[in-house]
Request: fold
Amino acid sequence: MEPAGADPITHFAGIEANTKVNYSTYRRLRMQRTAFCGQPAAIWEFTFQGRVRVFRAIDLGYGREDGREYDIYLSAPDAKWETYRPVFDNVRFGFCTTG
Reply:
């Protein structure tokens, strides 16, 4: 898989194709372009069936032309999503690369 680079939505779409193969219960909730720390970014939210329960996940990814890519990712049991989602937001608001 190529690094996210300047088009993280295309990068996530490629990962999504593999996810659909490995998790037949995968369901996309959203995938959209955004910006993060002044860089092009994408946010991808989805659900999938784990061994015991349904999980929900959110991934904020962005990359740079030099090939570095960053992700802030959280998955948690869907039934407890409202409990765990603030963890993602706290990390997102406190994380930013420089340079």
